[in-house]
Design goal:
mainly alpha
């Protein structure tokens, strides 16, 4: 399935979900009797899901903060010459070419 047909499929499914949700939210206006008691769930379920999404994001941020090691302090200078000795490698390569 290429991107264009996948995009149209997603659009059609989304429009169907939007219409279904609208009918579920206001069932009395569409002649669906007996479903009026359940229409409150059309509001409760999305609110619960949205709240859980927000709480999951906060949980994820907390987990990331708790498990990430602390950064190197900025007041300690980095000694890059001892960690990465690029000058010796460059000198050896130049010596081989001569």
């Amino acid at each position: 399935m290429d991107d264009k047909s996948l995009g149209y499929t997603i659009m059609i499914i989304t429009i169907a979900c939007m219409l279904g949700y609208f009918v579920w939210l206001i069932p009395g206006h569409f002649g669906i009797l007996g479903a009026v008691d359940y229409s409150i769930w059309a509001i409760k379920i999305p609110v619960i899901l949205a709240m859980y999404m927000v709480l999951f994001i906060v949980l994820w941020i907390g987990y990331t903060m708790a498990t990430t090691p602390p950064p190197v302090p900025l007041d300690t200078p980095l000694d890059l010459d001892t960690e990465f000795d690029f000058d010796d490698e460059d000198d050896e390569e130049e010596g081989e070419d001569e």
